[in-house]
Amino acid sequence: MSKKFYYETHEMDDLKCPVCGGDHVHITDIVCWTRPTGEDGDVKIVWVTGKGQVTEAKTIDIGVTNPSSRRQAFSLEGNCENSGCHFMLHFGQHKGVTNMSYTLNYVEEN
């Protein structure tokens, strides 16, 4: 028996800067923490920069750790045109719930 999948796109609110509330926000990098062998398995990190550079590793020093202690997670690095703010938005899972948090004023590589 075959299944048919249907997809719908719904508009949501614009992303606001978590620092100043500005609405001119840019996402620059994406970091994903994956567990290819499943829950509680070894973590594989994939970091994609805004310039298209892809780094895969078991550990990576970007100033934050996996937002999920047992499952997959991802973080979006961004900045704000309004006040020059820098931040990372984190999405992690715990016991069937997806949590969202953010980090401000992280250390940038020079």
- Counting DSSP H or I runs of 4 or more residues, the number of helices is 0
Q: Which structural class best describes the helix and strand composition?
A: mainly beta
Strand count: 6
Low-confidence stretches: none
User: How would you state the average pLDDT, rounded?
Assistant: 84
Range of helix content = under 10%
Percentage of residues in DSSP E strands: 35-45%
Please provide a brief summary of the model:
The chain is mainly beta and 110 residues long. Helices cover 0% and strands 40% of the residues.
Protein described:
The protein is an all-beta fold. The protein has one domain (25-104). Helices cover 0% and strands 40% of the residues. The protein has no helices and six strands. Strand 4 and strand 5 form a beta hairpin. The N and C termini lie far apart (56 Å). The model has no long low-confidence stretch (mean pLDDT 84).
Layout of helices and strands, plus pairs?
Blueprint: E1 25-34, E2 44-48, E3 54-57, E4 73-80, E5 86-94, E6 97-104
Antiparallel strand pairs: 1-2, 1-4, 2-3, 4-5, 5-6
Structural descriptors:
about 110 residues, mainly beta, six-stranded antiparallel β-sheet, about 40% strand
